[in-house]
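for the writeup, i need someone to sanity check this before i put it in the appendix. the sequnce is what the collaborator sent (i think, or maybe the updated version? ugh). structure was predicted straight from it, no edits. if anything looks off just tell me and ill rerun, i have time this weekend
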Amino acid sequence: MSALKIKKGATSHSAYNLRPNYSDTVERHTLAVLVENEPGVLARVIGLFSGRGYNIDSLTVAEVDHLGHRSRITIVTSGTPQIIEQIKAQLGRIVDVHQVNDLTVEGKTVERELALFKVSGKGDNRIEAVRLADIFRANVVDSTLESFVFEITGTPEKIDAFAELMRPLGLQEIARTGVAALSRGAV
């Protein structure tokens, strides 16, 4: 019988140690999930998250193939790499799910969100709100003598920055659509 010798300081890699090295770092991921457009499918997808204590930062859903009765759910969530892998695997097991893409790991993406901001104010605050809206390329979609409703489209970070600047100027209410995302480049 021959014994296998391992040099001092070397590490042994077993074929049975198939568990990848995961980080404990929490990462933000954007998932695109193609599903059947049928009653209850969204509830099953959301149930997967709530049942396991996973958080959803953003959720959008719309029909993308009318003839094929398919909808696309875009989910922004956060977790360790291991949690993200579990989420993707569990989504893939749902019967009505056709495809799960992790846009974050597949390469560069284009992400946009639409938001409406109601800002009330008079005098200098009103003038400053309009000036900032111009800088952020936000459109005035409603105006009264005491308030504005601004429409802005951009990355979630741009929306957050606009909100922070509007708070001291009289921000009253925000409505956000959630993230819509596509991978960049050829398919």
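Residues 1-14 have pLDDT under 50 and may be disordered. The radius of gyration is 23 Å.
thx in advance!!
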